[in-house]
C-alpha cells in the first residue's frame, strides 16, 4: 500500500551520480498504525494514525482503544487486492527510489493580504495622477445589480488551504530512519503533517 503520513522536516540538496544538484524535501514518514478499515459504496477506506498526542478527547480514546492519541489521522482509499486490518503497521518499505507520489498538505498562512500578493494584480501606474493607489484593485465592474458577484478577486485571508502537489519524484529512501527525500518543495511549514500517496504519473512523463 503506497500511502502514508509524514512530517515535513526541512529542505536540502542531493548530488546525483552525474554531478547534478537536486533540491529535495526531507519527510519523516511513519511508522503509521491502521486504526480502522471502512467500507462505503463498494470502496474500502483505511483510517491511519501517525505520531502521538498527549491530550485526547474521551470519544477518541474509546474509538482508538488507547490512552494516548495520534497527532494526525486521515483516511486513504484502499487499492484493490490489498488487504490490511486494524492494528497493522504501515512503513516506507513499499516506496522505492524513483517512485512518483502526490503530496497533500496545508499551505502556510499569510494572513490578510491585498490583491497584488493574493491574486497577482499588476497595480496602477506610478504616475499620471495616481496618488496612493499603486496597489489598489481598481474598479470591480458596474453596480447595476446592487451587489458584488461571488468570486470577485479581492483582498482577504491568504494561505492555510489544502494543497496537492502531484508527481514528485522520490530521490532517496532512508529506511533506517524512516526518512524520504522528495524532489522539490512541498506545502506547509516545518513540522507540518502531510499525506503521501503513490501514483503512476501522467502520460507525458512516461
Automatic annotation (TrEMBL):
Highest taxon, organism lineage: Bacteria
GO biological process: translation
Similarity field: Belongs to the universal ribosomal protein uL3 family.
Xref: PANTHER family: 50S RIBOSOMAL PROTEIN L3, LARGE RIBOSOMAL SUBUNIT PROTEIN UL3C
Job of this protein: One of the primary rRNA binding proteins, it binds directly near the 3'-end of the 23S rRNA, where it nucleates assembly of the 50S subunit.
Subunit structure, as described in the record: Part of the 50S ribosomal subunit. Forms a cluster with proteins L14 and L19.
Protein's name in the database: 50S ribosomal protein L3
Amino acid at each position: 500500500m503506497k500511502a502514508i503520513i509524514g512530517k515535513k522536516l526541512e529542505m536540502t540538496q542531493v548530488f546525483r551520480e552525474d554531478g547534478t544538484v537536486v533540491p529535495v524535501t526531507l519527510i519523516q514518514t511513519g511508522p503509521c498504525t491502521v486504526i480502522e478499515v471502512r467500507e462505503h459504496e463498494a470502496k474500502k477506506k483505511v483510517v491511519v494514525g501517525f505520531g502521538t498526542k498527549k491530550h485526547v478527547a474521551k470519544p477518541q480514546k474509546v474509538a482508538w482503544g488507547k490512552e494516548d492519541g495520534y497527532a494526525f489521522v486521515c483516511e486513504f482509499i484502499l487499492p484493490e487486492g490489498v488487504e490490511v486490518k486494524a492494528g497493522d503497521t504501515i512503513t516506507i518499505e513499499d516506496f522505492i527510489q524513483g517512485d512518483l507520489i502526490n503530496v497533500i498538505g496545508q499551505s502556510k498562512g499569510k494572513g490578510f493580504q491585498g490583491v497584488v500578493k493574493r491574486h497577482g494584480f499588476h497595480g496602477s501606474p506610478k504616475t499620471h495622477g495616481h496618488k496612493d493607489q499603486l496597489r489598489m484593485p481598481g474598479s470591480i465592474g458596474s453596480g447595476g445589480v446592487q451587489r458584488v458577484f461571488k468570486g470577485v478577486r479581492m483582498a482577504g485571508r491568504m494561505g492555510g488551504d489544502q494543497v496537492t502537489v502531484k508527481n514528485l519524484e522520490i530521490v532517496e529512501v532512508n529506511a533506517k530512519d524512516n526518512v524520504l527525500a522528495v524532489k522539490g518543495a512541498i506545502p506547509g511549514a516545518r513540522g507540518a503533517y502531510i499525506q503521501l500517496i503513490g501514483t503512476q504519473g501522467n502520460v507525458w512523463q512516461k
